[in-house]
């Protein structure tokens, strides 16, 4: 696991467009917080020393921020989110462009649905239709949603309210991850090999035990662990994390993740809370 040669790429612009690209030649500080809960994932980026023209382009054209980070061997996406606030901070001698973001916030806030389904409609079909209304796409997790609405069903209100009703009936959970809808079971992680975390692959210090205090989502178990590693974009909510350390060995589901970095500072880590899947 490399510890040096930090790399970052921040792209700011309209959704689906090219926009403004900033990399590690500038000072870039970021924080990305993600969870399996239905609350919006948040992120913020501070970019130092941009020209007035570039700052103006970001403030006038910016809608979506994509943050990639990693090392010289390659970068991966940490987060994609809608800009909720963009300002210029003047802290002499620095001029800082601050971007605060929410993942899928526009769709969850603005999308209203008025849908009706006939008797016998499958829960999966209803869920797929609500996802279409959100226009976010779905992340493949392999989860199959069972059941039918024997007497049909209708929805009128926000897409978020409709999602809550359908997933509660089906016994699954939903979250928005990087602009896509992710459906998971109540306990099991996404299928796949997951991420191996050891001192050799980036584990920092000893995992910290969590004991049923301040639970953030209804998927968390009564005990779990908080782990910190070198920045690792592959550590994502819902994925499997395999821990091999002197104190802890086992497989867990990742519930919350925080990525933090600063190309001119000390921060360059990932912290996650994990629970038995």
Biggest sheet record: 13 strands, mixed
Number of distinct helices: 4
**How many angstroms does the end-to-end distance come to?**
26 Å
Count of distinct structural domains? 3
Which parts are unreliable, with pLDDT below 50 for 5 consecutive residues or more? none
CATH topology of the largest domain: Phage tail proteins - horseshoe like beta roll fold
- What spatial form do the alpha-carbon principal axes imply? flat
Per DSSP E runs of 2 or more residues, the count of β-strands stands at 20
Radius of gyration: 20 Å
Strand content: over 45%
- The portion of residues assigned to helices is 10-25%
Q: What name goes with the CATH superfamily of the largest domain?
A: Baseplate protein-like domain - beta roll fold
Given helix and strand content, the structural type is: mainly beta
Topology record:
Blueprint lengths: L5 E8 L6 E4 L4 E8 L6 E7 L3 H10 L2 E8 L2 E18 L2 E9 L2 H6 L1 E6 L3 E2 H12 L3 E2 L8 E2 L3 E6 H12 L1 E6 L2 E6 L9 E3 L5 E9 L11 E8 L9 E5 L4 E14 L5 E9 L1
Parallel strand pairs: 10-14, 15-18
Antiparallel strand pairs: 1-2, 1-5, 3-4, 3-19, 4-7, 5-6, 6-7, 8-12, 9-11, 13-14, 16-17, 17-20, 18-19, 19-20
Helix pairs in contact: 3-4
């Amino acid at each position: 696991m490399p510890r040096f040669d930090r790399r970052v790429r921040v792209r700011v612009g309209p959704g689906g467009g090219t926009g403004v690209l900033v990399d590690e030649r500038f000072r870039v500080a970021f924080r990305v917080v993600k969870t399996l809960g239905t609350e919006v994932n948040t992120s913020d980026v501070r970019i130092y020393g941009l020209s007035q023209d570039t700052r103006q382009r970001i403030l006038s054209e910016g809608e979506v921020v994509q943050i990639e980070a990693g090392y010289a061997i390659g970068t991966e996406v940490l987060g994609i989110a809608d800009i909720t606030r963009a300002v210029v901070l003047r802290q002499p001698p620095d001029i800082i462009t601050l971007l605060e973001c929410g993942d899928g916030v526009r769709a969850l806030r603005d999308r209203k649905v008025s849908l009706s389904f006939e008797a016998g409609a499958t829960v999966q079909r209803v869920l797929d239709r609500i996802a279409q209304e959100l226009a976010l796409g779905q992340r493949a997790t392999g989860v199959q949603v069972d059941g039918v609405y024997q007497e049909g069903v209708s929805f009128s209100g926000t897409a978020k309210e409709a999602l809550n009703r359908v997933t509660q009936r089906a016994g699954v959970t939903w979250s928005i991850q990087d602009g896509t809808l992710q459906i998971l079971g109540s306990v099991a992680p996404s299928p796949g090999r997951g991420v191996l975390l050891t001192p050799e692959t980036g584990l920092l210090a000893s995992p910290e035990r969590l004991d049923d205090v301040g639970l953030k989502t209804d998927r968390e178990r009564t005990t779990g662990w908080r782990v910190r590693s070198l920045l690792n974009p592959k550590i994502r909510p819902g994925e499997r994390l395999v821990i091999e350390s002197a104190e802890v060995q086992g497989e867990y589901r990742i519930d919350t993740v925080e990525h933090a970095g600063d190309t001119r500072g000390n921060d360059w880590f990932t912290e996650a809370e994990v629970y038995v899947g």
